């Protein structure tokens, strides 16, 4: 029988008489039954899309099931003759330094290999022993002198048939005129080949044999994460389509991508790619980040992977869309790199209830319960707190001093902003109690005041007029 080896491989290929019960056939290959008590011969490796358990007699023994793939361990064929042992079929059949071993040393230049003796009756040959079993599918013969003469015109190539210990013809060539001759054929399992010719003298530079030691599949391989296969007898799995995710060994995409997430090709859990901060996605099957929607106006999306907005933005703030915070500031950048302003404080002269979709203008005679402000700068894009003893109607460019006999009470910041009558006071003065909140904030600007961390009395002052 064939020498035993690891699964999918044979041993040394020698014939060893043994009773049938002791035969050990490699997996991943096709074997030929030689009869009871006779050796089994490896005749080919298992076909792609199929697997061959131990004892298989066909290259397509078992079709690969759905959810799996069946392919040889490697698809790379190399020159298995490189460095192989070479012997002439007639001992001593070489001239000078043109020894037979040079036909497998990798030097393909003409006139550098084996030079046989010149015999009038012809009859030369050599064997190339790979040292192990290989599945070969092409032989290349490079012949002739450096001057391009004496090209090997007629020859035959045989492979060693292990079961019978004989050589079987692979192909023969009757009239070759090319210094490099190659012929491909169906895979043959062998450990050595023989080249023979009837020409009187041979100038053979190199013999190359394309082959692999890898058997076919001995068992089906499950499709990996992110792949699937809905058909049988397949050599590869299909990548999971976008908008779906595929768990291992699946015969179809497992499910649509989860809401709040998107699934490019090859997704395997449906949770790998969450919609970023400031976005959400309320439908299943999203394919790309572009399907994550900006958070609606008046709402914020404060975490990743949301199917719905987190909630409404704080009173006193205007969320313009794409907000990731309930109290957005235009100077802040989205941590996930989503561009565009998410919102800001409610504009001066307007009020913003919780979740407002559009700042509402204060009616004439009313004021924003924002801290009293006045606007300055060339583009009216800066503003400051109204000083104690002054009042600042909406849109004021400068603070206006309270009239004589009135005062501006800092304690009434949450009431109508203006000057109240009372007492005999000089214009532009305030009660001694002005050493309270408004006085303490005098000279501050709203831009430097983070109302999210301020006193609750101040935080929501722009919610109403």
From TrEMBL:
<dbReference type="InterPro" id="IPR009030">
    <property type="entry name" value="Growth_fac_rcpt_cys_sf"/>
</dbReference>
<dbReference type="InterPro" id="IPR008979">
    <property type="entry name" value="Galactose-bd-like_sf"/>
</dbReference>
<dbReference type="InterPro" id="IPR000421">
    <property type="entry name" value="FA58C"/>
</dbReference>
<feature type="domain" description="F5/8 type C">
    <location>
        <begin position="70"/>
        <end position="214"/>
    </location>
</feature>
<protein>
    <submittedName>
        <fullName>Myosin-10, related</fullName>
    </submittedName>
</protein>
């Amino acid at each position: 029988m064939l020498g035993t080896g690891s699964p999918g491989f044979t041993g040394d290929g020698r014939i060893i008489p043994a009773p049938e019960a002791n035969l050990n056939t490699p997996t991943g290959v096709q074997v030929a039954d030689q009869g009871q008590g006779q050796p089994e011969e490896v005749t080919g490796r298992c076909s792609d899309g199929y697997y061959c358990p131990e004892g298989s007699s066909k290259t397509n023994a078992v079709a690969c099931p759905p959810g799996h793939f069946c392919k040889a361990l490697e698809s790379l064929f190399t020159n298995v003759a490189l460095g192989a042992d070479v012997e002439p079929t007639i001992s001593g059949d070489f001239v000078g330094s043109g020894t037979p071993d040079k036909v497998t040393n990798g030097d393909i230049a003409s006139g550098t290999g084996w030079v046989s003796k010149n015999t009038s009756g012809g009859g030369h040959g050599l064997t190339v022993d790979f040292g192990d079993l290989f599945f070969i599918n092409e032989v290349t013969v490079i012949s002739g002198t450096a001057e391009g003469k004496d090209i090997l015109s007629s020859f035959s190539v045989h492979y060693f048939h292990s079961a019978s210990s004989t050589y079987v013809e692979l192909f023969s060539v009757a009239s070759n005129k090319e210094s490099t001759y190659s012929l491909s054929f169906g895979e043959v399992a062998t450990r050595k080949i023989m080249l023979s010719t009837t020409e009187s003298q041979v100038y053979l530079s190199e013999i190359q044999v394309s082959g692999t030691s890898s058997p076919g599949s001995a068992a089906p391989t499950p499709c990996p994460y992110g792949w699937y296969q809905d058909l049988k007898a397949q050599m590869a799995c299909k990548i999971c389509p976008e908008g779906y995710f595929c768990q291992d060994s699946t015969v179809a995409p497992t499910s649509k991508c989860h809401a709040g997430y998107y699934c490019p090709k090859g997704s395997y859990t449906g949770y790998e790619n969450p919609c970023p901060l400031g976005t959400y996605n309320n439908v299943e099957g999203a394919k790309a980040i572009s399907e994550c929607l900006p958070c609606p106006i008046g709402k914020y999306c404060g975490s990743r992977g949301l199917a719905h907005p987190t909630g409404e933005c704080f009173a006193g703030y205007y969320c313009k869309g794409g907000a990731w915070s309930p109290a957005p500031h235009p100077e802040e950048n989205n941590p996930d790199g989503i561009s565009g302003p998410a919102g800001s404080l409610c504009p001066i002269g307007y009020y913003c209830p919780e979740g407002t979709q559009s700042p509402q203008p204060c009616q004439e005679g009313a004021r924003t319960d924002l801290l009293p402000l006045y606007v300055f700068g060339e583009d009216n894009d800066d503003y400051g707190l109204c000083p104690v003893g002054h009042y600042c109607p909406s849109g004021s460019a400068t603070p206006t001093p309270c009239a004589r006999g009135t005062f501006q009470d800092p304690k009434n910041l949450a009431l109508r902003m203006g000057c109240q009558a009372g007492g005999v006071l000089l214009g532009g003065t305030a009660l001694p109690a002005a050493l309270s909140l408004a006085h303490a904030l005098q000279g501050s600007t709203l831009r430097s005041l983070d109302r999210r961390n301020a006193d609750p009395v101040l935080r929501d002052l722009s919610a109403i007029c």
